[in-house]
Structures are given as structure tokens and as C-alpha cells.
Design goal:
single chain; mainly beta; Immunoglobulin-like; eight-stranded antiparallel β-sheet; 6 helices
Length: about 700
């Protein structure tokens, strides 16, 4: 709100303005989630000529309300994004060294007016900055709270309330739009609580070209960035044209190319590769947009004094020929050369080259909607860029950078994959990562067992299952192998053995994830001696030299026993009852469903075993049935127990051919028809004392208690 030429008649100072407190009831999953929304906190009144407050200035909200206080407000030190509390070398930043004040940036002279519930800043200029995620998942992926740190003050912004309705309920979709009151002329560090959106838009509401701020935006994702002002691309301040292409100067001092807030135009920008921070100047009300480029980044670390113009030209030509793409799709974006540092010999550091592979970012924001292809002839489509990435990373993992790029020196190479489209499962997975940086690609030299498969018996899964680790030239475990888009695959095969019917079952081909091929369900169908498992890389192709074989092992026959699988809920004497029998692995205790795994047919019999002397009942009905191979079950469906009481049954199974014959005793409780409708109402504890010498009756003798009911 802007005020000027105001006339106040009989208005006390304390009655001029009041900023209401946010409603605690809105802090719930359907509205503001877990902290106050910003509508009543990011509030700004500008007195342009002093007719409202006595001097030109601003009235700003108390956005730090209940910081580290009322936990219901959800605001405190614990909400500061963790990446903001960490130095570039990983050490933790103490809070006292990070900020001196909380809330909207202001001067020491600003008055905290408890009656107005606001701060009055005479002679100070503020504006409303709008921060918008333009990604497809702007309503579903939470990136807040957003932290803004300027002039020693830290502010946390939650965003707007969910006002949508879906089938009579709130949609639980909130736009990732953040209104922030900022002090003009201040440089702000900005951090999201999640991975930055790929497409951001900023503008200062109702401001003029004399009002400007600088945003220093940290990116966890290693990537090049394009900045647009009013829809047109703005080259970084260290960019220059040479030989018909854009090249980039390496700064000789840390802030050499940082935009100048007093003189530079809106959209001026510079990316600090060492700190992974983008500096961008926002001036006036025209929108400034930032987009992550859809590129492959490759970083080469080389011995000192290696890099010169001739080296760079040869490198780009070799990479283009390897990947079968035009040279103009490869751009050097950063060179850190020892030759340009002029350091003493004892301080020499390696040379670093970072180049991007992909299409030139669009000159206009309206032409950059397609993730990868800008419509220019010869542009790479998204699938073509993925193919380039797969080829590059897989070849690096098998040949190494020195051989692959035809270099005369040893080199270490790191690569980052093209960004997935926002809203896709791949982007969701990447955006949930705490860090996504360029990954060093090592050369695979061999494989080894983390866990060797443990044979049990035929048909049973190995315990433990095999886990295979990829190793580099130094015998070290590799965390990344080749492409993350199309991972390497390792395939298991069964070798040897004296049983020609034996086959390997389960998921025989698995991806290499984090350098490990992890199997979960391998087993061998038939028993036998002198089996072995061979594990071979089958993707990428032509890498069968990477193989690993177990020692020979023996698999015994499967131990099979019968088990009552289902039976009638209540067995009543004189009525037909049913019992279902299944085959069970006596070691793993798992049901055997493929009962004809070796061509067997099975039958089951059930007969009366010992009977209590107090029970003279008999068993009638069909007492021999055949197993159904489709269900793996034998069903006795017309059994009849003639009297109530306890029965002991013997369930036997036999196979044909006659290889298996096993039996299992089963106890049964049979009630009479009179007892069927009895519903126990009260349970009581009953103690019984026997007038008998325990030593006389014996420890191992069985005693039965029978009651009449």
C-alpha cells in the first residue's frame, strides 16, 4: 500500500494502523501446513511524503512473530534450510555468525511499535518481491520455507494459503509463490528448503527503475543457468564473444563480475562456480526469470600447465567425434588454468575444464518451453541428449578419459546428467536428494562378491542372496558406474551340474545401483552336484570380460512335509467337515506351489491315530485324495467325526515316482451339536490342586482332564 497527501482528523498515533496476527487455526495440512502463512506477516505500507507518519518511510509486518517461541507458529532456528548452515567445505556455520536479526531486513533505527504490531522505518525504502516457481509441480512439490538473508536479518517465508477446493475438500495444493518484503539496495542470500525449481520468476511489485536488489541464489544442482529480463536472455557479466562464439572470463578476484546494484541493468548476472551461487540483479517491476539449462556437464581435472587454446580445440573435436555430434553442441563454460594463476611452483593446483554438451539456451523465454530442443536445425532432442549421456558415461567407465578423449596426460572426469522434466518421477527422485553434484566417473576394472550366494536346497532361494560390487583400477569400491539414466546390468547364469533339468529361477538380470548389483530371489529348480553361478555384465554390450563365478556347490533334494492349510471353522460331530492339505518346505516353512517341479504327482491320506480313552469316536468319509497341481492342494471335503472329543489324526503324503513319503500328526477338537450354540459369557481363572505325588506320577507322563458339559 502506498500513501501520500494524507489528512488525518482526530486520529491518535496508536490508532493509525494495526497489523493483525495470523490465525493459528490456519496452521493445518489443508491450509498453511505447519507454519503461519505470509499474508499478515509480509505486509508493507509506504508513506511516500510523510503525511501519514510524519516522515517518509515504511511500515512493515513482524514476520519473525514467535521465532523460537510458541511452537504452534512453526517458526524458529530449526526451520532454517540446512544448506544455509553449512560452509562450502562442509563445516557448520554457527547461528551467531550467520545473522544478527530476525524478520524483514531493516535499520537499527526502525521502531518496534507494539501498538501497531509492526515496525516503523523512517527514511527507509522497502518493496514487495514476488518469487514464483514456474515448474509444472509448483502446486505439489514444497520448496519452502524460503530463507532470505540480507543486511544481517534472516526471514523465513512459507507462502500462501491453499484456497482450492476439490470435491468439497481442500485440494492440498499450494502455489510455490512467495511474497517477500525486501529492503531496497540490499544484497540477499536466498535458500530453498528443497531442490531449487528449474524455472523461477522474480519481480518487484509497483517499483521503479531506481529501486533494485541483488539475489544470491544457491544451487545444490550442478548446472548452467540462463537469466532472462523481460523475456530476453541476459548473458553473464563475464561472457564475451570470441571466434564467433560466447566464451567466459575466469574472475581474478571473487567479486570481479558481481552485478553493481547502483549502475547495472536488471537481469545482470554472474555464476560463481566455486560456491555454486548465482548473482542476479532485479531492478524495477519488469520480470527476471532464471532457468536451469538442459545440458550435460563434464569437468576434466588435468595436470597443471596442460590447458591452452590448442588443447581446448583438440578436446572439443575429439569429444564431438566420439559422440557423433556437431562441435557447436559443446561449449567450454569454465577454465581454471594454472598458467593463468601465476602462483609459486609449490602452490600449483591442477587445471580444470568444465564444458557443457547440448543445445544453445534459447534467446527468448518464449522459445525455451521445450526442455531440450529449441527448434533450431540440428538441435538435440531430449532422447538424443540422453543417448549422448549414456554413450559418454558408459565409454568413460570402460575406457577412461585419457584413452577416450585421446589425451596425452592422465585426467579425472566428472559428469552430471541432463535434468528430467519437472513433475516426472525422475525429477521427484532427484529433487528429494539432499545433494546432486557432478559425479566422478571411474573406470571399471573388475567385480567382486560383497556376499556370496548361499545354496540351501532345490527350489529354495539362496541365503544370502548374491551382492556384487564393481571395482575400479585401484580395487576400490565404485559408488557410480556408467549412466544413471540407463544403468549397467549384470546377468546371472547357471553352469555345470549333473542334473540337465536344473534351471536358474528368479530375477536373473539386475541393474547396478550405487556400484552394486543386488539380487533378491535367485534359486535353482532341481537338485544336483557341481553347480556354479556366473555373473556377467550384459549392458552395455560387448563387456562380457567383466565376469565373476562362484565356487561349485551342491543342492540337496527339497525337504517336503504336509501341513493342514485350511479346515472347517467348527467341527461338529455327525456333520461333514473339510480339511485342505498343502506341501511345505520343511526348512524355509514356505508353501510349495509348484508341486510338479520335477514331474511328481502326489496323493494324501488321512487316518485316525490314537484316541483318548474317553473318546470312542470314529472317522468316516473319503480318506485318500490326489493333490491338484493347479492349486497345490489336497482337499478332504466329506470327513465325518462320529463323536465329540479330541482326535489325533495322521496326515500322510506320497509322491509318484516314489521319492517322498512323509507324515504329520494333527490334533482335532470336535464338539457336539448341543455345544454349537454355546456362547461363553464370562471367563474365570480356575485353580486346581491334585492330591498326588508328582515324583510317583512322573515328569514325562501325560495327564488328561475331562469335564462333563
Amino acid at each position: 500500500m502506498k500513501l501520500s497527501k494524507m489528512t488525518l482528523i482526530n486520529v491518535d498515533d496508536e490508532s493509525r494502523v494495526y497489523f493483525h496476527l495470523p490465525n493459528l487455526g490456519k496452521i493445518n495440512p489443508s491450509d498453511c501446513v505447519d507454519m503461519d502463512c505470509d499474508g499478515l506477516k509480509q505486509t508493507l505500507i509506504k508513506d511516500l511524503d510523510g503525511t501519514f507518519t510524519g516522515r517518509p518511510g515504511t511500515i512493515i509486518g513482524r514476520s519473525a512473530l514467535a521465532w523460537n517461541g510458541d511452537r504452534r507458529r512453526g517458526l524458529g532456528d530449526y526451520r532454517i534450510p540446512k544448506v544455509m548452515l553449512t560452509e562450502y567445505d562442509g563445516t557448520r556455520i554457527e547461528l551467531r555468525n550467520l545473522f544478527t536479526g530476525k524478520g524483514i531486513s531493516r535499520q537499527q533505527s526502525c521502531r518496534n511499535d507494539t501498538v501497531w504490531n509492526a515496525y516503523y522505518c523512517a527514511g527507509m525504502d522497502h518493496a514487495m518481491l514476488m518469487i514464483e516457481s514456474m515448474d509444472k509441480d509448483t502446486e505439489t512439490r514444497r520448496v519452502g520455507p524460503v530463507a532470505m538473508l540480507g543486511n544481517g536479518y534472516i526471514d523465513l517465508i512459507n507462502g500462501p494459503q491453499d484456497h482450492g477446493w476439490c470435491a468439497g475438500y481442500t485440494c492440498q495444493k499450494r502455489l510455490s509463490t512467495f511474497p517477500v518484503v525486501v529492503a531496497i539496495g540490499v544484497e540477499y542470500q536466498m535458500y530453498f528448503s528443497s531442490t531449487n525449481p528449474q524455472h523461477l520468476r522474480f519481480f518487484l511489485l509497483n517499483s521503479n527503475p531506481s529501486q533494485a536488489i541483488i539475489i544470491v541464489l544457491y544451487y545444490k544442482v550442478s548446472n548452467t543457468l540462463s537469466v532472462y529480463h523481460n523475456g530476453d536472455k541476459v548473458q553473464p557479466k563475464n561472457a564475451h564473444y570470441a571466434d564467433g562464439t560466447i566464451k567466459y572470463h575466469t574472475p581474478s578476484t571473487p567479486r570481479q563480475y558481481v552485478p553493481l546494484i547502483d549502475t547495472d541493468p536488471s537481469g545482470s548476472n554472474f555464476y560463481d562456480w566455486d560456491k555454486q551461487q548465482l548473482y542476479v540483479l532485479i531492478r524495477g517491476s519488469d520480470p527476471v526469470e532464471i532457468k536451469m539449462d538442459k545440458l550435460i556437464l563434464v569437468s576434466l581435472t588435468l595436470p597443471p600447465m596442460t590447458v591452452n587454446q590448442f588443447f581446448l580445440e583438440n578436446l572439443i573435436g575429439n569429444v564431438a567425434a566420439l559422440l557423433n555430434i556437431n562441435k557447436d553442441k559443446i561449449k567450454v563454460v569454465r577454465v581454471v588454468s594454472e598458467a593463468s594463476k601465476r602462483r609459486k611452483k609449490r602452490e600449483t593446483q591442477p587445471d580444470i575444464i568444465t564444458f557443457a554438451i547440448g543445445n544453445e539456451p534459447a534467446a527468448s523465454i518464449s522459445n525455451s518451453t521445450n526442455a531440450t530442443n529449441n527448434g533450431e536445425e540440428g538441435d538435440l532432442s531430449p532422447s538424443e541428449l540422453d543417448t549422448v549421456y549414456n554413450t559418454l558415461t558408459n565409454d568413460l567407465a570402460t575406457e577412461g578419459a585419457t584413452s577416450l578423449f585421446n589425451l596425452s596426460v592422465e585426467a579425472t572426469v566428472a559428469v552430471s546428467s541432463p535434468l528430467p522434466e519437472p513433475g516426472t518421477d525422475d525429477w521427484t527422485a532427484q529433487s528429494n536428494d539432499t545433494e546432486r553434484t557432478m559425479v566422478v566417473v571411474s573406470t571399471v576394472n573388475s567385480m567382486s562378491f560383497l556376499t556370496t550366494p548361499g545354496p540351501l536346497h532345490e527350489g529354495a532361494r539362496f541365503i544370502p542372496q548374491p551382492r556384487i560390487q564393481m571395482l575400479d583400477q585401484n580395487g576400490e569400491a565404485m559408488a557410480v558406474v556408467g549412466s544413471v539414466i540407463s544403468p549397467w546390468r549384470v546377468t546371472a547364469t547357471l553352469e555345470g551340474g549333473d542334473n540337465p533339468n536344473a534351471t536358474l529361477m528368479g530375477t536373473v538380470s539386475v541393474p547396478v545401483v550405487n556400484g552394486i548389483a543386488d539380487y533378491t530371489d535367485l534359486s535353482v529348480s532341481h537338485f544336483g552336484d557341481n553347480f556354479a553361478l556366473r555373473f556377467t555384465v550384459t549392458y552395455p554390450q560387448n563387456l562380457t570380460r567383466f565376469t565373476l563365478v562362484t565356487t561349485n556347490f551342491t543342492l540337496p533334494r527339497r525337504p517336503v512335509v504336509p501341513l493342514i492349510h485350511e479346515q472347517s471353522d467348527r467341527t461338529v460331530s455327525g456333520r461333514l467337515s473339510s480339511i485342505n492339505v498343502k506341501l511345505v518346505d520343511n526348512v524355509t516353512k514356505l508353501d510349495i506351489n509348484d508341486i510338479d517341479w520335477r514331474g511328481h504327482t502326489w496323493n494324501a491320506t488321512i487316518e485316525l491315530g490314537s484316541i483318548s480313552p474317553y473318546n470312542n469316536g470314529t472317522l468316516t468319509g473319503s480318506q485318500e485324495v490326489t493333490f491338484d497341481p493347479a492349486t497345490g492342494m489336497a482337499v478332504f471335503n466329506n470327513l465325518n467325526f462320529t463323536h465329540r472329543g479330541s482326535y489325533f489324526l495322521i496326515v500322510r503324503i506320497k509322491s509318484d515316482p516314489a521319492e517322498y513319503e512323509e507324515q504329520t500328526p494333527v490334533s482335532f477338537r470336535v464338539i457336539s451339536p448341543d455345544q454349537e450354540n454355546i456362547i461363553p459369557q464370562v471367563s474365570k481363572l480356575m485353580r486346581m490342586k491334585f492330591d498326588v505325588d508328582f515324583k510317583t506320577c512322573g515328569r514325562r507322563k501325560r495327564h488328561e482332564i475331562h469335564s462333563t458339559y
